[in-house]
């Protein structure tokens, strides 16, 4: 307790000192004073009595709760005081939580106590009072100087129990405080009361688990410092435990109400004051706190107005011409009030109304602006600012007016849209400018002020010239309006004639003229709706002009740097022309006019591309407006390495050298100036030829390189080669930025050293052989006649018809059936003898001939039929002498004689005639010819047939092989030896097997 | 008896986004509802088309509610927007409960089920309108108003089905019109819990109604022979 007594010297700041409650005895003030004096005198007299310990114990202690404020209100009395007695006393108050021994607060309260006075004291708890039972007790001690030491504490009052939880009658689990409204940044203690003993309590503040402290088996609590605004529906606190007994509450965290900013009031019409401010943060919370209210209070008039809007409020000005105003704007929500104050003179807060603007007398260069500001009362002088916006510029003017203003806007550009606007402020007590008020207007057109910039391109063809005139559109400042058309007048300087202007509608920028070889002066003017520009004159001379040599141009970072020699005499200027797009053939002619004193310029264009060659021509313009070419330059804005290599042709290949040659590129395809060529040769055995040097290629291979420094040299002889060797070469151009791409090497094989000698021998030999062959071919007929004439054909013989028609009409070729044989010899052939014809053509192989085939003509029955032995007829067409005479002809003999003897006689006669007439007739037997048959010898073994008879045939062996048919009546049943044009394989069987 | 067996749909899933195309579709459906012959029971097709439309509308409302619930529960804040938040049903006593034994529900007559659907959505619509009045943001109010319109359409559609089947509409007793007035004794947390349960019950009701209408649709379908005949009549 001693320690707690000493603690009374440093009282806790959270203790709230509340008001005393004196007895209202105003009517008896005088008597009170008297009584006090009496009382004091009595006390002085009774000092010995007061020195005794007084039984001044606090009594009638009553404790009440304000749950929302988490406050305990204590009230008590000190009954022991004498009537009208006042005594300075100190009270010690103890507060315990959960149980009386758990004292959480000790406080001291000093006051002067009167008789029968009710004393009050309050205490605010951090923990919601619903969370735990609280106990309160109090004791007192006299602390009056009039009472001598020692002074003693009274006895404690009995503990007063405060149980809000029970008083609310909550039976369910709960989280406190319920729906508490706090400001952002506050510290809050939350407790969770469950119906059963808590186990594994988890509490979450907006989803974030909090560290929970258990106060008693059913109560847990946690503290949140510096709470933040999360959402307007509040921050949810949710607690759960085992067994499941969930509960939650919503903590409404309001943003801190801000002081209204930029609070000001002004008037435009002296009838209404318009006050505005910036409200700052919105402190509203759903279902808890509405948007903060704003109240306007004017202290001079004492009037107040609740504003309906968040950031502005109108105040009606009274008719009594109040000049001074003292406004207080109060912002308020459930948690706090904020206010701002302004004091002003009404006339110093005048903002003129927005002017109304008109334009009049608008011309090409001038316009008059008028405006009117509605009354601001008492015809106050206004200062107005006029702004003219146009052509990207802003020009400002000032004017002082009363009600109506007028300003002449001059030096305007023709055919230009402007925007002029005006705002005004009070000239005497400037407060604010009015709103801007402006209008657009467009000045009228004027005639173009400058001649168009004209240039030409002349192309001569077959004595005619096509002149293309180009002109650049006039700038807006020179066109002074919309250009409608261009007039072109062509004047023949050699033959004066009437001038006819040719209008060309805009926006054309060129026209073509077909001119002859005369000189012409061409005038070009631009025209708009108002007038015509000065003429631009250019002369096309009849002189074709001079040719100049092309030079290379320097390139700088700014572009092509061109310079030329100054021309003496009558040069009025220079023109540089070039094509912006030479690469695609469209040219897009550009030109630049330069003064007579200029001898250099830098040409740059966004159209310039790397690797494209640009040609620049510099013309001098004479006083007669004739352009003549001075210089011609060419160059690249940026050189690029070549993309292609030349097509190389190899020639003059010898065993020790060959020649490479290639053609020039077209200029347009060159991406840079070619400075020469590199000839690469893959070395044999790693050694480079003289003049070559070793070089590494881009594919890291090593080869020999020969450098040709002259770009005009396009042949190269590779020498010192070895015969019968393979060489590989490759030619590429090189430029300042590198060489061409690495292409495939071309292989070449050097020939043998003696190969030419061989050629000298072989060629004539072959020629001779061919010549002989041709001669032989041409004389083949002669050779045939000489060496192997054709065998004559008896049927084809004309001598036969000759005989028939002239000598004997019944004469015919001998027919077998007509023959009356003189003798028939039957030859007994052994069984199995066989004569076989084999082969495909004229071959006859007789595998077994046992006896010679003699032909004996024997008399026989005329109509013999039936099978019989082979009957052979000896062919008398030939005799041995004839066969062996070497003659190649076949001599058919018509067997007409009925007897052998007659036949022989006639044969001899015929032979003579035939030998004479039918040596070369072809032997052919018509098919179906049956009445006239003959048997003829095809060939003797000596005639050269490949398939010959056995080498030792019996005589007469000539009968053994036949080519022509031997027609034999079927009744004879002899084995026929028939063949037509082709020879069939026939097997002769001994009993009359007949094959055809 | 398994009294706790409930027909619970999936938990409220936080999905955002809305489909104005679906809204247009819904509006078209609503617009044509009066013209549905099934509603006046005089047309040949019977109640089938109107049941189909009611089913479609229920499924659409389910989809729409997923989006709305996501937005609204985010507006309430954690733990209400947490997917696994499954609190006991504190308060929200007046909300029509969708949790009922499945067998009991299926054993009800069509008339009774339709009547209970109608009554439930009538109540839920009133509560939703109250929710709309309390909402703080304009976007949320717009979404809620849109959903209320759709729910009103569903009520009309159910009334149409009932009329087509010849069932009378339940008449509210005078003075028992449900109104949404926050209980002053309710803490704001319990108020939020009520909002949570309102959305949850609504979702369960829609889920179950979709099943009801699907079942009813199948029940009301003409037999297969009739379908064949009709197809033949159409020249198939």
Automatic annotation (TrEMBL), chain A:
Residues 974-996 are annotated as: Disordered. It is a single-pass type I membrane protein. Keywords: Disulfide bond, Glycoprotein, Membrane, Receptor, Repeat, Signal, Transmembrane, Transmembrane helix. The keyword Disulfide bond applies. The chain crosses the membrane at residues 757-778. GO terms for biological process: cytokine-mediated signaling pathway; positive regulation of cell population proliferation. Heterodimer composed of OSMR and IL6ST (type II OSM receptor). Heterodimer with IL31RA to form the IL31 receptor. This is Oncostatin-M-specific receptor subunit beta. It comes from Equus caballus (Horse). The gene is OSMR.
TrEMBL record, chain B:
GO terms for biological process: cell surface receptor signaling pathway via STAT; positive regulation of cell population proliferation. Pfam families: PRF. The keyword Plastid does not apply. Keywords: Cytokine, Glycoprotein, Membrane, Secreted, Signal, Transmembrane, Transmembrane helix. GO terms for molecular function: cytokine activity. GO terms for cellular component: extracellular space. It comes from the Eukaryota. The chain crosses the membrane at residues 12-33. Signal peptide: none annotated. SUPFAM superfamilies: 4-helical cytokines (SSF47266). The keyword Lyase does not apply. It is found in: Secreted. PANTHER family: CARDIOTROPHIN-LIKE CYTOKINE FACTOR 1 (PTHR21353:SF7), PTHR21353. In complex with CRLF1, forms a heterodimeric neurotropic cytokine that plays a crucial role during neuronal development. Also stimulates B-cells. Binds to and activates the ILST/gp130 receptor. Belongs to the IL-6 superfamily. Forms a heteromeric complex with cardiotrophin-like cytokine CRLF1/CLF-1; the CRLF1-CLCF1 complex is a ligand for the ciliary neurotrophic factor receptor/CNTFR. The CRLF1-CLCF1 heterodimer binds SORL1 (via N-terminal ectodomain); within this complex, the interaction is mediated predominantly by the CRLF1 moiety. The tripartite signaling complex formed by CRLF1, CLCF1 and CNTFR also binds SORL1. This is Cardiotrophin-like cytokine factor 1. It comes from Equus caballus (Horse).
């Amino acid at each position: 307790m001693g320690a707690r007594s000493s603690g009374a010297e440093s009282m806790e700041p959270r203790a709230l000192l509340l008001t005393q409650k004196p007895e209202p005895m105003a009517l008896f003030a005088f008597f009170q004073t008297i009584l006090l004096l009496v009382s004091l005198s009595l006390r002085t007299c009774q000092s010995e009595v007061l020195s005794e310990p007084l039984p001044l114990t606090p009594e009638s202690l009553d404790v009440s709760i304000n749950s929302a404020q988490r406050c305990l209100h204590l009230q008590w009395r000190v009954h022991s005081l004498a009537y009208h007695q006042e005594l300075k006393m100190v009270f010690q108050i103890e507060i315990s939580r959960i149980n009386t021994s758990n004292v959480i607060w000790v406080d001291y309260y000093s006051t002067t106590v009167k008789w029968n006075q009710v004393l009050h004291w309050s205490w605010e708890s951090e923990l919601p009072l619903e969370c735990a039972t609280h106990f309160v007790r109090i004791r007192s001690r006299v602390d009056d100087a009039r009472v001598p030491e020692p002074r003693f504490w009274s006895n404690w009052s009995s503990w007063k129990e405060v149980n809000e939880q029970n008083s609310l009658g909550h039976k369910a689990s709960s989280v406190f405080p319920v729906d508490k409204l706090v400001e952002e940044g506050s510290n809050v203690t939350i407790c969770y009361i469950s119906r059963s003993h808590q186990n594994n309590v988890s509490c979450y503040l907006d989803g974030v688990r909090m560290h929970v402290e258990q106060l008693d088996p059913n109560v847990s609590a946690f503290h949140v410092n510096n709470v933040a605004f999360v959402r307007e529906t509040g921050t949810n606190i949710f607690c759960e435990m085992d067994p499941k007994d969930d509960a939650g509450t919503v903590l409404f965290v309001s943003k801190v109400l801000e002081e209204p900013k930029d609070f000001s009031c002004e008037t435009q019409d002296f009838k209404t004051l318009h006050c505005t401010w910036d409200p700052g943060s919105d402190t509203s919370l759903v279902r808890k706190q509405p948007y903060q209210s704003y109240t306007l209070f004017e202290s001079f008039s004492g009037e107040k107005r609740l504003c309906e809007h968040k950031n502005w409020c109108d105040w009606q000005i009274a008719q009594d011409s109040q000049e001074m105003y003292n406004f207080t704007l109060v912002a308020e929500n459930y948690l706090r009030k904020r206010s701002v104050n302004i004091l002003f003179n009404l006339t110093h807060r005048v903002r003129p109304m927005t002017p109304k603007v008109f334009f009049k007398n608008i011309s090409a260069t001038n316009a008059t602006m008028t405006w009117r500001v509605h009354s601001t009362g008492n015809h106050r002088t206004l200062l107005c600012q006029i702004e003219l916006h146009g052509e990207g510029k802003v020009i400002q003017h000032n004017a002082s007016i009363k009600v109506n203003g007028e300003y002449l806007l001059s030096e305007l550009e023709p055919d230009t849209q402007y925007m002029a606007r005006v705002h005004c402020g009070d000239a005497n007590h400037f407060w604010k400018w009015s709103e801007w008020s402006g209008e657009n207007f467009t000045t009228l057109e004027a005639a173009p002020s400058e001649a168009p910039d004209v240039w030409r391109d002349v192309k001569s063809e077959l004595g005619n010239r096509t002149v293309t005139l180009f002109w650049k559109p006039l700038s807006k400042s020179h066109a002074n309006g919309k250009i409608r058309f261009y007039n072109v007048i062509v004047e023949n300087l050699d033959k004066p004639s009437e001038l006819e202007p040719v209008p060309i509608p805009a926006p054309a920028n060129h026209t073509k003229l077909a001119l002859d070889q005369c000189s012409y002066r061409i005038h070009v003017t631009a025209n708009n709706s108002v007038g015509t520009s000065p003429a631009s004159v250019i002369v096309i001379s009849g002189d074709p002009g001079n040719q100049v040599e092309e030079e290379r141009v320097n390139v700088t970072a700014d572009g092509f740097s061109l310079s030329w020699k100054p021309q003496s005499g009558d040069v009025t200027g220079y023109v540089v022309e070039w094509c912006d797009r030479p690469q695609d053939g469209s040219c897009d002619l550009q030109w630049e006019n330069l003064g007579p004193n200029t001898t250099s310029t830098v040409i740059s264009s966004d159209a310039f591309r790397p690797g494209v060659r640009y040609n620049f021509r510099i013309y001098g313009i004479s006083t007669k407006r004739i352009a003549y070419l001075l210089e011609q330059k060419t160059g690249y804005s940026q050189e690029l390495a070549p993309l292609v290599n030349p097509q190389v042709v190899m020639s003059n290949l010898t065993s020790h050298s060959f020649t490479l040659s290639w053609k020039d590129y077209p200029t347009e395809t060159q991406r840079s100036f070619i400075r020469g060529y590199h000839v690469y040769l893959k070395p044999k055995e790693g050694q480079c030829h003289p003049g070559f040097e070793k070089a590494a290629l881009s594919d890291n291979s090593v080869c020999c390189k020969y450098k040709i420094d002259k770009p005009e040299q396009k042949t190269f002889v590779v020498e010192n080669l070895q015969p019968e060797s393979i060489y590989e070469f490759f030619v590429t151009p090189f430029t300042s930025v590198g060489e061409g791409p690495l292409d495939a090497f071309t292989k070449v094989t050097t020939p043998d050293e003696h190969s030419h000698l061989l050629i000298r021998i072989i060629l004539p030999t072959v020629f001779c052989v061919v010549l002989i062959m041709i001669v032989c071919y041409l004389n083949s007929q002669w050779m045939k006649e000489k060496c192997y004439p054709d065998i004559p054909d008896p049927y084809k013989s004309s001598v036969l018809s000759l005989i028939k028609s002239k000598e004997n009409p019944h004469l015919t070729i001998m027919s077998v059936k007509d023959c009356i044989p003189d003798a028939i010899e039957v030859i007994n052939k052994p069984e199995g003898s066989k004569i076989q014809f084999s082969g495909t053509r004229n071959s006859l192989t007789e595998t077994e001939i046992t006896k010679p085939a003699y032909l004996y003509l024997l008399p026989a029955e005329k109509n013999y039929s039936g099978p019989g032995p082979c009957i052979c007829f000896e062919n008398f067409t030939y005799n041995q002498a004839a066969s062996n005479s070497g003659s190649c002809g076949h001599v058919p003999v018509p067997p007409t004689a009925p007897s052998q003897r007659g036949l022989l006689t006639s044969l001899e006669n015929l032979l003579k005639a035939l030998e004479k007439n039918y040596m070369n007739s072809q032997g052919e037997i018509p098919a179906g010819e049956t009445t006239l048959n003959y048997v003829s010898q095809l060939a003797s073994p000596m005639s050269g047939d490949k398939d010959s008879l056995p080498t030792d045939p019996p005589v007469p062996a000539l009968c053994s092989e036949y080519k022509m048919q031997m027609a034999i009546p079927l009744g004879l049943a002899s084995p026929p030896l028939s063949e037509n044009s082709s020879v069939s394989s026939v097997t002769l069987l001994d009993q009359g097997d007949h094959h055809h | 008896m398994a009294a706790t067996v409930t027909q619970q749909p999936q938990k409220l899933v936080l999905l955002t986004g809305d489909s104005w195309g679906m809204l247009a579709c819904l509006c078209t459906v609503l617009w044509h509802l009066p013209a549905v012959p099934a509603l006046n029971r005089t047309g040949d097709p019977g109640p089938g088309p109107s049941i189909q439309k009611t089913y479609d509308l229920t499924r659409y409302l389910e989809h729409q509610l997923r989006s709305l619930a996501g937005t609204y529960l985010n507006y309430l804040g954690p733990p209400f927007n947490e997917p696994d938040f499954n609190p006991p049903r504190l308060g929200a006593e007046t909300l029509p409960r969708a949790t009922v034994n499945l067998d009991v529900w299926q054993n009800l007559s069509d008339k009774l089920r339709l009547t209970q659907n109608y009554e439930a959505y009538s109540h839920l619509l009133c509560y939703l309108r109250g929710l709309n009045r309390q909402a703080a943001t304009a976007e949320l109010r717009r979404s809620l108003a849109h959903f209320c319109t759709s729910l009103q359409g569903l009520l009309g559609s159910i009334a149409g089905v009932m009329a087509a089947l010849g069932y009378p509409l339940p008449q509210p007793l005078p003075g028992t019109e449900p109104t949404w007035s926050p209980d002053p004794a309710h803490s704001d947390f319990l108020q939020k819990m009520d909002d949570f349960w309102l959305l949850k019950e609504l979702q369960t009701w829609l889920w179950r109604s979709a099943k009801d209408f699907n079942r009813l649709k199948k029940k009301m379908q003409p037999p297969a022979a009739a379908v064949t005949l009709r197809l033949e009549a159409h020249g198939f």
